Amino acid sequence: xxxxxxxxxxxxxxxxxxxxxxxxxxxxxxxxxxxxxxxxxxxxxxxxxxxxxxxxxxxxxxxxxx
Length: 66
Known about the structure:
Layout: H1 12-26, H2 28-34, H3 41-65
């Protein structure tokens, strides 16, 4: 859990910016988006299969251009 302590003369806006930076660097937003809805095992397999195809296509296209 990310936590920010407000300084003596620190503005709320700057503390909020620091908090947002900490949360994004900790990867909390991406994890939250990933776990927003339940994903069945078959949906997970399909998603990973599509990602593999995308990666393979990207690598194949980068080899052709070189």
